[in-house]
Amino acid sequence: MTSRSPERACLLLAPQTKQELEESAKSDCAKALPDEDLPEAGRVTGVDVAGDSARVVTASQTIFLARFDVGWKVTAAGCKRLTTDDSRPYSCPVKGS
């Protein structure tokens, strides 16, 4: 998900994630997403799938996905691991509620 093609990246977002991004930015997704300054994904280092949820770990971030009728959509992006003691193990600048 990069600013090179924000319109295309917005198509990858789950509905709740896109809605939350637009509401918090008070702008449409294609304008708001580049402002989040998400890192380039880089090389994929791990993938975990559990039912209709998935986690993709890359060299620079973790991306969470969910399976919808139309396919897999991003529910959170730009996620960084917090301390292992934290009850919320990731901080994600782009996420749905």
Q: Termini distance?
A: 19 Å
Spans with pLDDT under 50 lasting ≥5 residues?
none
Number of domains: 1
Series of H and E elements: HHHEEEEEE
Rounded Rg? 13 Å
Helix share of residues? 10-25%
Task: Name the features.
single chain, alpha+beta, 6-stranded antiparallel beta sheet, 3 helices
Description:
This protein has helices spanning 6-11, 15-25, 29-35, and strands at 44-50, 53-58, 62-68, 71-81, 90-91, 94-95. The protein is α+β, with helices and mostly antiparallel strands and 97 residues long. It has one domain (6-95). Strands 1, 2, 3, 4, 5 and 6 form a six-stranded antiparallel sheet that branches. The longest helix has 11 residues, at 15-25. The two termini are 19 Å apart.
Structure at a glance:
By secondary structure, the protein is an alpha+beta fold. It has 3 helices and 6 strands. It has helices spanning 6-11, 15-25, 29-35; strands spanning 44-50, 53-58, 62-68, 71-81, 90-91, 94-95.
Topology, pairings included?
Elements: H1 6-11, H2 15-25, H3 29-35, E1 44-50, E2 53-58, E3 62-68, E4 71-81, E5 90-91, E6 94-95
Antiparallel strand pairs: 1-2, 2-3, 3-4, 4-5, 4-6
